[in-house]
Amino acid sequence: MAIYQQVLREDYHRLHPALQKRYQFPFRGSGMMHKITGGPKWLYPLFLGGVACKLLFPERGENIPFTIVNSVRTGAGGEQQVHWERVFYFPGKKRWFNALMSLDGERNVIKDYLGEPGLFYSDLTFHVTDRGNLRIESGNQRLIIGKLEIPLPKILQGLASVEESFDETKGIFTIRVEVTNPLIGPLFSYEGEFVSDERL
């Protein structure tokens, strides 16, 4: 059973059937980000510094092709992990936004380590909307320096909100991601659509 089915429990079956299949792995998809936006220009060095660890990138734009690959791994303790590779194809360059997720069954949250190597950690909670969409919200976050994990106060956090759905009229998945900070406001967002490569 996939970790996302475990965290959603009985609500998993309220997901749109296409999303239920999409969250059984492995999964490969490709599509188009209609727009990718960011925060204040003075944050450019931060986003540029994230390129090396496949966590952040400074580029923004519209109609950016992208691919997503989800694969299953086994952690050191035998736990199931899901690797997320998201690649955005800007003109003349590729940028990554990668993560490694696993289940914390006691707290019923997904543990999300962002970047390679992981430099940032966030708890993720999963919910199913009345329309059968999947909604994901970030929780407690930590900065990772080597083996040290430093809790971040809310004022320094990038609070993420994600909604994924399936458009039956077009036969496509849709995705919207927004990351904000309590002081700065919007930090990073993207929205677009994609299909499973199995149908291509």
Automatic annotation (TrEMBL):
<feature type="domain" description="DUF4166">
    <location>
        <begin position="15"/>
        <end position="194"/>
    </location>
</feature>
<protein>
    <recommendedName>
        <fullName>DUF4166 domain-containing protein</fullName>
    </recommendedName>
</protein>
<dbReference type="Pfam" id="PF13761">
    <property type="entry name" value="DUF4166"/>
</dbReference>
<dbReference type="InterPro" id="IPR025311">
    <property type="entry name" value="DUF4166"/>
</dbReference>
